[in-house]
Design a protein that fits this description.
The structure is a single chain. Strand 1, helix 1 and strand 2 form a beta-alpha-beta unit. It contains 13 helices and twelve strands. Strands 2-1-3-4 form a four-stranded parallel sheet, with helices on both faces. A three-stranded mixed sheet has the order 5-11-12. Strands 6-7-8 form a three-stranded antiparallel sheet. About 25% of the residues are buried. The chain has about 400 residues and is of the alpha/beta class.
């Protein structure tokens, strides 16, 4: 297999506001000018938004590919902008130099610090230069953390992390809440806000996750009694009714504006039993009678796999856990801002926190009773807090309700 020149470029910190386009163009131009005749055949490998420190080398997938290509005798020359782009660790640079020497692969740097790793003197110079790069990286982290500590001391109670939406000029939390009240779903709200031109922090279109976070933070959603924060419903029994065929009924409105529910599977399958449409009024008496059994549910056997109820001190504990998780989120953002974490590590840690918060959101607050004269969305939230689903018989009338039980 013929050997070919390979260029490796890297940048540690990349985000939406600073994607590093100038850095990429600078590195690419300098390397191509250095490569000369090799420029036409250069294979470009890049790790963008990934730290060059030794402990994080496993995140640099293209660097790993470079090492594999050298070991397979596929690389004639390694080009890079400077030694720190190849790595900030003395050990990593020494390993690369020894591997290149073993396979007669040259290392050429655009900043002019070219040393031959195939000689003892060259390896010594590589050790010195990489040690200086490693020292500079560690000093930078120490200075950053010292600055953060001083800022915290001067601004007690404030966070270096990203500010809440609504604190910057032009950001309107009320516009988000109003849109959510209109649409009733996070996805629909995101689309509506984008269509209306309501500004986001990043300047791009609205995302479901952003809407969800704002709504969770800014309003007391009746869904405190639901399995997580769900879309506000304009139907009493939305997502509750299960046909005997196993399909969940969908709501519909007649010309007289009476709410009805139908089985979509039956709508498409003539072999399905009839009727497959039922009015809300026919279901209401049974639902009210079943919900009145609420004080008796604690005598039933627990149902395996159900989520935990929250009551009394447990609710306070849940809120305390949530506060701690949000504090961890702020620490992660600060570590990312200081360069301690790269983009991939930040995303992984934030995702882990989101999972833990989702688990907290799956805990239920047990209502003492159903307030039937409350707004429709509040009643629906209360019903979905006590029931997993309500099963309907062949006549499409309620047969039984599957209660959420403590585990």
């Amino acid at each position: 297999m013929s050997r070919q020149p390979v260029a490796y470029i890297r940048r540690s910190k990349v985000d939406t506001a600073n994607p590093g386009d100038v850095s990429r163009a600078t590195q690419d131009a300098a390397i191509r000018a250095l490569a000369g005749a090799d420029a036409a055949n250069l294979v470009i490998l890049e790790d963008w938004g990934k730290s060059g420190r030794g402990a994080k080398r496993h995140l640099r997938t293209e660097y790993g590919r470079l090492l594999a290509m050298i070991a397979a005798d596929q690389v004639s020359t390694v080009y890079s902008y400077n030694l720190s782009r190849l790595g900030r660790s003395t050990r990593d640079v020494r390993e690369l130099a020894e591997l290149c020497a073993a396979h007669d692969t040259a290392i050429r740097l655009a900043d002019g610090q070219n040393v031959d790793g195939r000689t003892a003197t060259g390896r010594m110079l590589l050790d010195i230069l990489s040690a200086v790069d490693e020292w500079q990286a560690e000093v930078q982290v120490e200075r950053t953390m010292s600055s953060i500590a001083a800022w915290r001391e001067a601004h007690p109670g404030e966070s270096l992390g990203q500010k809440n939406y609504g604190e910057a000029p032009g950001e309107s939390v009320q516009a988000v809440l109003d849109a959510f009240s209109e649409v009733g779903s996070f996805l629909g709200t995101a689309k509506l806000l984008t269509a209306r031109g309501v500004p986001t922090r990043s300047g791009g279109p609205w995302e479901t996750r952003s809407v969800s976070r704002i709504v969770r933070r800014e309003r007391v959603v009746p869904a405190k009694g639901t399995r997580g924060v769900r879309a506000r419903s304009t139907r009493l029994f939305a997502r509750l009714l299960r046909c005997h065929c196993g399909d969940t009924l969908t709501s519909m409105s007649s010309t007289k504006r009476r709410v009805r529910y139908y089985c979509r599977r039956a709508h498409q399958n003539l072999a399905h039993s009839r009727p497959y449409i039922v009015g809300e009024g026919r279901l209401l008496p049974w639902m009210m009678a079943e919900a009145a059994r609420l004080p008796m549910e604690s005598t039933a056997l627990p149902s395996p796999g159900k989520v935990r109820w929250l009551a009394g001190s447990d609710v306070a504990m849940s809120e305390s856990e949530r506060t701690a998780l949000e504090g961890r989120r702020g620490s992660i953002e600060e570590a990312f801002a200081s360069g301690v974490l790269n983009k991939a590590e930040r995303a992984a840690k934030l995702n882990a926190i989101d999972v833990e918060i989702a688990v907290l959101d799956s805990y239920l607050f047990r209502p003492s009773h159903v307030t039937w004269d409350a707004p429709v969305d509040a009643v629906n939230a209360q019903l979905r807090a006590i029931w997993d689903y309500v099963e309907l018989g062949t006549d499409l009338l309620p047969v039984r309700a599957e209660w959420w039980m403590p585990i």
